[in-house]
Amino acid sequence: MISARISRAVPYVYIAPAVLVMAAGLLWPIAKAAQLSFYDWGMGTPWETARWTGTEAFVAMLGSPQVWTSLAVTLAFVVLAVAAEMCLGVALALFLERPVRGMRVFRTIFVLPMMIAPICVGLIWRYLFDASYGPINHLTGLFGIAPRSWLAAPETAFLAMVVTDIWQWTPFVFIMALAALQGMDTAVTEAARIDGASTWQTIFLVKLPIIKPILIVTLLMRMIDGFRGLEVIYVMTFGGPGQATDLFSLHIYKAAFVSQKLGVASALSILLLAIVTLLSLAVLLAANPLRRRESD
Amino acid sequence: MRRLDALVHYLILTALSVVCLLPVIVLALTAFKTERQIFDTSWSWFFMPTMDNFRAVIEDGHIDRYLKNSLVISIAATAITLLFGTMCAYALARFRFLGRGTLSYGTLVLRTLPPAVLAVPVFVIWSTWGINDTLSGVILVYVALNLPFTIWLLYGFIEQVPEELEEAAAIDGCGPFRVFWVVILPLLKPGLAAAAIFTFRLAWNEFILSFILTNRHTRTLPASISNYITDTGVEWGKIMAAGVLIALPPLVFTFVAAKQIITGLTAGAVKG
Questions:
Q1: What is the pLDDT of residue B271?
Q2: In a 3-state reduction of DSSP, which class is residue B194?
Q3: Fewer CB atoms inside 10 A, N or C side of chain A?
Q4: Per the domain annotation, does B152 fall within a domain?
């Protein structure tokens, strides 16, 4: 191996810049959030005025109905949106699996909603759902349905948020499932066909089990994104009306920069970090790029 | 029967494309409408396009300044991330050293760190370090956020480069750093392209951290959007014009490099 011939310091020279940046920009802030969660401190005031409050912020967090509402909203959003995206995306991939001419153009178009800024996505859909001049009201009007203030009522605002996410992320599931299906060994489906399996049997007993690991990773990645996202909803509703669309990440932002409760916001950050890290570890269990290579 | 099949196939694909594109087209069309046309209760496809909104955001909105900030931040963040990320991925793939396991698992877990977790502490730390309201402060947090994904993506690409190639170069008298630049780097082009697009996308599109970490001089394009949302409502014409400017580079990337984007999207789960 090459490494035997050169100084032991070489790998550390290679990793040093990246490690330093990640330490300063990710690890140190995480440690700071943990520290801040034990203090009552106002932004802009000197650190000496900070008051040690112990676990008060965590107790306040767990006792706050708003926090639980926000968690419930986020969970409902993740379950609903991700379930719809998985079903739609996988169904479409199964149906459109056969390679056709021009698929590259279509795939390019499907990537678009994921590439444009979340803030633009929020803007677009806020406009589409607008009560007085939104194109969606115009469209439903063609069918004789009276215009509605979609984003002003809790139920429809929540549904609007789900619809927007489905629009933006179903293509992701579709592309992942399609890549998985097209990477499958055709001999397997061929064998199933010769054995007389029906189309449905082939799908449920052969194809889906084979691509299951990839679908699980896709599912977990979408769930993680559900907990991470706040920009689309920041522009669309800012969490309202009431708390109808108060996603957890947005809730943290508001606790810190609207209510100015740094301690509670930090405690919430730690909770969010725990949730996302758990999901992230689940991704590693499902598909670990390190372990797979070493076993090859 | 086969032809009917193909027809149905294309019909569905076309319908899906329309669904994907329509909202983006609405954004573009609205940006070229006058206030009166926008507030019209019925949606119109055909109208006399106006440049007024773009003129307004450029002349009164200082959008040229935000555009410049966004460009500087995105380009610098992408360049630094690629450089540091490639170096780190190379060390992880090619050397056995103390701390290698911690570093590789650490990056895998940090890949999904929510920006909302960083918002409060980064704001506080950047203030004490005096890099609040500076472009370099924003660049630092974007590089940090992008590194885990970049390292992990490039790691997969470097693994596929046969080690014999490097050994041959070493025998020919190449030092370890020259091996990296002359042998490895050129073979990583597809991976680097994918990593560059995803890093640029995050830096260009990101809103919340930029909004917190900048002032009106250092604001980026997405963060400037908030200027057009007031208590009395949204200035739709202007905000859509700004939205078009924000959406443009990612749109161009998508059409130029869709293949690399799909590589980046599927790299984690599908093969690699």
A1: 46
A2: helix
A3: C
A4: yes
Closest-CA residue to A41 (of B208, B123, B185, B144): B123
Q: Hey, are the CB atoms on A14 and B119 less than 8 Å from each other?
A: no
Backbone angles phi, psi at A39, to 5 degrees: -125, 155
pLDDT value at position B270? 53
Residue B225, pLDDT score: 86
In a domain, B87, yes or no: yes
Residues A169-206 have pLDDT tens digits of 999 999 889 888 888 888 888 888 888 888 888 888 88
Q: Is B112 contained in some domain?
A: yes
> Distance from B62 to chain A by nearest Cα, in Å?
19
Range of the domain at A235: 63-295
Helix (H/G/I), strand (E/B), else coil: A265: helix
Q: Tokens at residue A74, please? A: 């986020």
Q: Which of A116, A172, A249 sits opposite B116 (nearest CB)?
A: A249
Query: What is the CATH number for A265?
Result: 1.10.3720.10
Which parts of chain B have pLDDT scores under 50?
Answer: 271-272
Residues of chain A below pLDDT 70: 1-6, 288-296
Assign 3-state DSSP to chain B and report helix, strand, coil percentages, each to 5: 75, 0, 20
> Could you tell me which residues come within 8 angstroms of residue B20 by beta carbon, excluding any fewer than 6 positions away?
A109, A110, A112, A113, A167, A171
Report the number of distinct structural domains present in chain A. 1
- pTM comes to 0.89
What integer pLDDT is reported at residue A76 of this predicted model? 96
Residue B32 lies in a domain: no
Interface of B with A in 65-104 (CB under 8 A): 80, 83-85, 87-88, 90-92, 94-97, 100, 103-104
